Amino acid sequence: MSRFAVIDTETTWGDAVMSIGIVIADADSYEPIEQRYYILTPFKSHGGMYTHALYAGGIKPDLECSREQAVADLRALLTDHAVSAIFAYNAAFDKRHLPELAHLAWYDIMKLAAYRQHNPKIPSHADCCKTGRLRRGYGVQSVYRMLSEEYAYCELHNAMTDALDELTIMKLLNHELNNYVKI
User: Of 55, 63, 93, 162, whose CB has the highest number of CB atoms within 10 Å?
Assistant: First the structure.
């Protein structure tokens, strides 16, 4: 695999997808190659915990359209880049919300980021389970801060910026793609 995708979704109070952010990255460098941001209508108007972040920082969607149009464009993007693997933080959530992409291989970033044996930046005093998983503080924001040592970082909960942040987490973890857990 020469390229992979990192994806993030944000949902409404009714659990419908209102936005999707995706980054196509190079499998060797983990550098972004292309990115797309979709805001789904009419769901953007339904309200959700992170509705305020849909246009955070002046971010504009590549497409503001129906779910069907977004998924068609997303599938074409993945095909154009020969992407067969999608990575996401807590991938089960995003995979459940994007069943149209269930035919692809999905991998969970959190399954490495939250475990002491895979994340050397987890402090020795951190409260971990016997398996090595952090008991708390293993969300994107906490792990990003831990790995980058940028303690002022705040997750925006914008699907596009979150997908980019999750790619950064992968780069900072410095694991090969085949070390990630397939779900």
Answer: 162
